[in-house]
Amino acid sequence: MTEQNVLIVDDEPDIRELLEITLSRMGLRTTSAANLAEARQLLAGDPPQLCLTDMRLPDGNGIDLVRHIQQAFPRLPVAMITAHGSIDAAIEALKAGAFDFISKPVDLDGLRRLVEQALQAPPEEEAGDEGGIIGDTPAIRTLRQQVDKLARSQAPVHIHGESGTGKEVVARQIHARGPRAGGPFVAVNCGAIPAELMESEFFGHVKGAFTGATRDKQGLFALARGGTLFLDEVADLPLHMQVKLLRAIQEKSIRPVGGGEELPTDVRLLSATHKQLANEVGAGRFREDLYFRINVIDLHVPALRERSEDLPLLASALLERIAESSGLAAPTLTEDAMAALAAHSFPGNVRELENILERALALAEGECIDAEDLRLNQSPPIPGGEQYNRRRDDRDWHRGARAGRAGER
Fold first, then answer.
1. SS3 61
2. What is the pTM of this model?
3. Dihedral (C-alpha) 10, 11, 13, 14: value to the nearest 10 degrees?
4. Do the beta carbons of residue 271 and residue 245 sit within 8 Å?
5. SS in 3 state form for 161-227?
6. How confident is the model at residue 379 (pLDDT cuts 50, 70, 90)?
7. Which pLDDT score is estimated for 111?
8. Rg over CA atoms, the chain
9. Half-sphere exposure of 218 (CA within 13 A, CB side)
């Protein structure tokens, strides 16, 4: 970090001095400005690698500086310093493009973590990244651009789209392309956790907190420390848990069940659902205040029928992946098979396509998959349907529980 420069914008000399001393001890060079005009001058002359700006400045609002940096220096991370408890101001800064925010009085450990993450170079994109976003239609190219931009931020992102479109794939790409890529990615299906275990699963518990709590247990927030926590099907959270999640987001701290003190959190929060959250709010099933906290940035994943031109590329990539995991050579799809797939509506989207190809690979004879091998008229329960989701939720819950216990060990 020795050659990196941080621009500090604050009209309070004591705050500037505190930040300068803290950052200099991290081996960073600093320049300082007391107002927007000075900040713009310094940006034009010697663009820094990070900008820390106060919300309230003598000649304007720090949000104006965030917007200016977004336009003139789109790859420069800028973090907002807000008054304690000003969560609405922090959300406004994140919406404007801020990398993250920190509250006054400044927590120095939190500041150091923020600076380290902001200055960490994003990982280089690898060609043919396994598990990435596959496709070349305009909708998918736009999605990739949005993912790359959002990866550089710490703002909460809500990913919405129909069941089976690949929302978790998108979440993993946001994580993998950002400064938290070296940390854990923890995914949980909110609809698959039993209600009585939910608080313990999210926040952990201490030994003796309740019957059966024979030892301390880390929750999902702790397991995701330094990385990303992905809440899939977040609309399925019961209202009592929504209240507790809202508090954890606002305070950036959690209290384990039975614990006596608050523990700071350090996670990037991503969420997803196939439901329309705004409709859930209107129906009283989802808290409006939580909706605004997790929906700072909204990202849409298109349905497969909206990008049908990607079908050949998707089918080929999925067949390669399925065959490799089975230790088989990947077969090719005949023209009749591709025509049959093109005529199919895919209500279950990419997940349904993967299931169809996995079954066809098991049933096909020889090096080709024909239309008959696809058996499109004999499909199992449609991904996204109640019966399918119940099976998937049970599988995800047990898989997540195993991963969590492994993380504790």
1. strand
2. 0.83
3. -60
4. no
5. CCCCCCHHHHHHHHHHCCCCCCCCEEEEEHHHCCHHHHHHHHHCECCCCCCCCCCCECCHHHHCCCC
6. low
7. 94
8. 24
9. 15
